[in-house]
């Protein structure tokens, strides 16, 4: 399953979050595959696209950063997966 997660730094946490990220701590735990990560151009946060079938691994990923970042995760489907469902609904 694919998950879109948005994140933003908590007040006063940006410097430490940047330091952790640059130190290589942005790698997801075992069981979570990072498909991409994007940063907002205004440095206010960003989002990741990950894949996992393990909710505990997703929780671990967020818990590692919860002291510095606010997260919102959503299970997502691609157009190719949504299309057949929409066709059935249109009938």
Written description of the protein model:
The protein has 91 residues and is of the alpha+beta class. It has one domain: Alpha-Beta Plaits. 36% of the residues lie in helices and 32% in strands. The protein is built from three helices and four strands. It has a four-stranded antiparallel beta sheet, with no helix packed on it. The radius of gyration is 15 Å and the shape is elongated. The model has no long low-confidence stretch (mean pLDDT 95).
CATH architecture: 2-Layer Sandwich
Number of helices: 3
Helix content: 25-40%
Mean pLDDT: 95
Beta-strand segment tally: 4
Distance between the amino and carboxyl termini:
27 Å
Structural class of the helix and strand makeup? alpha+beta
Total number of distinct structural domains: 1
Strand order of the largest sheet: 2-3-1-4
Which sequence of SSEs, written as H and E, runs from N to C? EHEEHEH
The top level CATH class name: Alpha Beta
């Amino acid at each position: 399953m694919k998950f879109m997660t948005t994140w933003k730094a908590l007040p006063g946490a940006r410097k430490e979050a940047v330091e952790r990220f640059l130190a290589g701590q942005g790698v997801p735990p075992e069981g979570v595959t990072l498909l991409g990560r994007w940063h907002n151009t205004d440095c206010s946060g960003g989002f990741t696209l990950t894949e996992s079938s393990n909710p505990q691994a997703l929780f671990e990923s967020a818990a590692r950063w919860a002291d510095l970042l606010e997260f919102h995760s959503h299970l997502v489907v691609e157009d190719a997966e949504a299309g057949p469902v929409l066709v059935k609904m249109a009938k």
